Fold these 2 entries.
Entry 1:
Amino acid sequence: MRIDLHTHSTYSDGTLEPEDLILCASKLGITHLALSDHDSTGGLEAARLKAKEFDMTVISAIEINTIETNSSVHILGYFIDENNQDLQNKLNHHRQIRETRAQMIIDKLRRMGIKIALSDFNGRKEKAAIGRPHIADKLKEKGIVFSRQEAFDKYLSKGRPAYIIYEGPSPQDAIDTILACKGIPVLAHPGYFVPTDAIVALAKMGLQGIETYYPSHKPDQIRNFIEIAKQNDLVVTGGSDYHGPGSGHEAIGEFTAPEDSIEKLLQRKAKLFG
Ligand code: AMP
Ligand code: ZN
Ligand code: FE
Ligand code: FE
């Protein structure tokens, strides 16, 4: 078993179509892959269909970016029921907030003399979630920057001139949304400034797992998250957060989840939902 519980496709800010993501993962020997696009389940069906060719298992997943006292907390949901109408209504709402925010970022760039328009992104798929990486790619296309990273560093990151905060749901709201469609909520990349007391608070809200094995996590952080998992009864998971070639998040195959992680997530699902 080779498990990657965190990947993105063109249904959010990944650069590969779901089918190409599956192809890429299969070449690296991945047997179980969670497609966890931001605020969209649009790529799951195509991914599952393609995965059949390789005897690979696709886990239905989602990543919901939340906002907690001005800092960003990302919550992954596993084994969600993507046909749940309340889930789809919520995701649709999140995507609308993303569109509004993208327009505000574009307005800021325009005032700096960089002319891009929301209509430049019309070629995207229906039900795809727009994010800052799409704007970064447009800046790259126009020759203003060389990479997504440079676009974030110069314009899009917090504290940079075209930054706009994402007014998304609260962590409790995202956890409730995931639980309401029989999904298992897991904290994504806690190494990006999620303090221990915040993780403990999330566990009390219903969080079930913590993404421990992750590209930017150092060995001492990994040890710490394993300890936090033990103390708060959380499943230890992991993933690459692969966003495709040219994304700057390209460590697919290098960061896998523990072999027992899927079984443990499924045990939580059975315990919570029967
Ligand atoms: P958004 O969802 O619009 O707030 O954008 C967040 C996404 O941007 C993350 O999921 C990453 O894919 C990407 N991202 C964040 N920081 C960087 C960076 N410094 N370089 C490249 N991509 C980034
Ligand atoms: Zn992303
Ligand atoms: Fe994330
Ligand atoms: Fe992600």
Note: The two ends are 26 Å apart (CA to CA).
Entry 2:
Amino acid sequence: MHAIDSLDEYTQNDHLKEWIKEAIALCQPKDVWLCDGSEREYKELCQRMIKNGTMIPLNPSKRPNSYLCRSTADDVSRVEDRTFICSKTKEEAGPTNNWSDPDEMRKTLLKLFKGSMQGRTLFVIPFCMGPLHSPLSHIGVQITDSPYVVCSMKIMTRMGKEVLNVLGNGFFVPCFHSVGMPLHNNQKDVPWPSNPQNKYIVHFPETREIWSYGSGYGGNALLGKKCYALRIASCMARDEGWLAEHMLIMGFTNPQGQKKYIAAAFPSACGKTNLAMMTPSLPGWKVEVVGDDIAWMKFGEDGHLYAINPEAGFFGVAPGTSANSNLNAMQTITKNTIFTNVALTDDGDVWWEGMTPQPPEHLINWLRHEWSPNSQEKAAHPNARFTAPIKQCPVVDPDWESPRGVPISAILFGGRRSTVAPLVYESFNWEHGTFVGASLSSETTAAAAGQVGKLRHDPFAMLPFCGYNMGDYFAHWLSFGRKADPSKLPKIYYVNWFRKDAQGKWLWPGYKENSRVLKWIFERVDNKAAAEKTAIGNLPTKDSLDLQGLNLEENDLKQLLEVDREAWQQETQYMSSYFQQFGPHLPEGIKTELNALIERLRS
Ligand code: SAT
Ligand code: MN
């Protein structure tokens, strides 16, 4: 459906109709497209983008129905310093978020959005986060002037007409997006429209609204993902008593056919996609993927914690992905995939660093330059991405769309830590596990603009994604656990695949070998594997970790499982000064846990 005249046929939702009309009046688009989510629509928009130079169709005999898009050099990642939480007060946003007065911000945005879609089409995208008929799902509608966003949202969410049927006259989160580049007087479009001067990724938690201006990149522009499913949803979850988390969800089955689901939080670009669809090196064990980025979790009637993946696609980091590191991802992206900022091969396929041991002789790189292995430039941007449907993954979990979600037995926290943090440890209980999540630090990656490799605190891997005061978020986690039957709560673990020795060599092989750590966790949940109580938590005994067939040196293992008292004492100082910024919002439970850790390290 294309014409605004058909708005009454399109939706019965009064708020939606009104909002669409307001958006048209404000943004002054040249036309309006009410998305139905059909294949036909997708193909038509791809054709438009091919014409405009936004998309290059890949060789259909190599990668059917797949496309390459290349952004401008400055629109390649999330922009955390341009991301705002506009709660009524700064205190509600907390010390880790950029806050701006909501009234002031509204004025700024209204000015920017005024006429912002001139010469462009305004698209209306109804989408559902989570399976269409799940009680855990929530609906949003995105208005955008980017056909790239429409096509990406079709892969990443359940999108289109059926969502409007489910919505009826009910509640939805309005997600307002413009690339911020109006076309005046038949001005010619560019392949990747965006606004280099002005970027705003704005959340109004009280009114549950999102406004995003100036960027076409993933996390800034596909508003169902980080903006809704994490920042706004974290506020909804706090108010309604559930959890919205930056976590993968995977099923893990032992050789006897027993299965447990695991949720795991890691910062962006720390291997969530690889872990979520791993091929275990341990014979007989199996991983199946429910999601690779976001988990919405709620207690079921039986008192167990259930999780859904609100997304329907993977928006994964391409560089480093290979048949060796992640064969299941490679097979997922063989068709129906949008690639962004990877390189184009001479035979019309894609390539990125790490995809094959030998680079091709010649490429067009993501910057559209001629490229050879001697080139100074990267072939693909380090944060280049693939966007592909989850259902194409060879190891998709049979219950990945279960409306009730999957029962979670263990929660993992982790990050990139070359020092201090051991390979794995188990928390003593939910309160301690919450503290472990709260004290997470990780070395920064290319997923966000800024310096790479710098250690920063990233509580629960939610630092860029929590829509309210992080101190209150800790309190929400603590009270959430207190409401539960402790015997039914998932056990909480810390893992670190990224430990290095003094010479800078990785101590742990990672990838499929991480199944060894998962096996220990699986068996701990069943009270089978042995552990040794230390000051920081329960660590595997040397024999309880299955290292058969792995040529790990004795000394490397020792380092991987070492708790260096002095380093940890320093770590607690570092935590303590970090936590201070939350002032009265830091819950007693976190202070108690920190003091208990300091005490244990002393004795
Ligand atoms: O924010 S994105 O979804 O674009 C990628 C990430 O940071 O996880
Ligand atoms: Mn992420």
Note: The pocket of manganese (II) ion (ligand 2) is lined by residues 246, 268, 293 (CB under 6 Å).
